[in-house]
What does this fold into?
Amino acid sequence: MPSPHPDHPMPAAAYRAVDARVHLASELTRGPWDMGHQHAGPPVALVCRAIEAAAHEHGLTHIARLTANILRPVPIGELIVEVMSDYVGRNAGHFSAHLLQPGGKEIGRFTALAQRETPLELPTNLAGHPLPQAPRSPADSDAAQFPFGHDHIGYGDLVETRNAAGHFWHGPCAVWFRMRHPLVEGEVPSPYQCVAVAADSGNGVSGVLDFRQWLFVNADLTINFLRRPVGEWICLEARTCLGPAGTGLAESALYDEEGLVGRATQSLAVRSR
It folds into this structure.
């Protein structure tokens, strides 16, 4: 596929590791709201990566929940991730993390629940099983493009998207996401990281307001996983609901090609531009 920005070399990844704690963001993290700020998906995935590493040290390999509280916009620059083990037991561990700028300015706070995975044979014919499927497979879905940022390298270049149902910014919508570039240069992102990159887009793909006239920004994201995702493709089946006083909620069912993997929610602040 030819580059949509032939005059600008495409970065190799969303981030380049400076050391174990510090990563430098590339233009691939640029979001839709401000040219100097990141889309929240990549930094949430960067923190998820650090929490996964901390949990794996205790044999906890499933991220059951990840909650991000974005305290202020995330600048495109160096980021520092610090992870704390709040409590680690035999089958579950609670972790927290801080996302910082150089100098210690805090950008985000995170909590996560990690679990030990154990082989289990479930009864057959369980209600609600097999798990629900996305409306269409990636192979049967049409190529789609985010309706922003075409003149600049950004998040829309980091991910490939395909419409499984509905259309961007026209209400309830289902969109498949696949990362075109690594999260961290030289690494293959984990399935949890791929979900985190995509899940923060629920309010965008299901937006009901004109992006040119309205802001509908989220300051948090919670992802609950019922099982480990598999494969490259992640589908968000998203819906936005708005309240009468500048508040709202975006909800997304999350799928891989085998079916439902979890759900994500975002609290929205709605403002006129």
